[in-house]
């Protein structure tokens, strides 16, 4: 299934692909089989809000090959607009399904993100990216691990460190790279790497590496499906997330749902 087969639902100026998680995996496998790389962005309410106000954020979305809805409010808004998206496609789920799909083809992944080794909760347990990659490899027969990096905070501010980081990823020549550094830092990293890895796929996956590594617990399935995963995350990290979720994202989500019937629709 090719990427061109999908149309897009417009939500506040952002086009979201009408695509299921299984179709994402099929499209990426097909593209890799034909030597084509690409990039997947998984916007949630916070990213959609920022894209509506910030041209730099919008640029990251405009440059993506696939844009999938990582958030139930986006699904609800598309339904109110009369062009429903088929399902939520979260980065924290894609890291598993894409790894399983690439394992079928004997392909490789590179995992970026997670807790650096010196900050890991258990002595000698290794960094988060390595632990996540080990779990993915164990669960996905045929999957190869091209490499892992859990960079220290602020690594991108030192050009020598940043260049070495990029050289490591590029030298590994992975088929797919999961970049879990948070938006928009992960998108900036992907933009830089893509120039030298045109046949590689990239997924900005936020906290997914931490979820897989076991450093952060994901919400129960019923909360994910009911649109309440943000409540679980707020409870786990209130100081970091309260301002974003309660003061900025929640009011925007309400406006999105109220305005959806005016501009939601297919591209």
From TrEMBL:
It holds the Pfam family Glyco_tran_WecG. Keywords: Glycosyltransferase, Transferase. This is WecB/TagA/CpsF family glycosyltransferase. It comes from Actinoplanes flavus. The lineage of its organism: Bacteria, Bacillati, Actinomycetota, Actinomycetes, Micromonosporales.
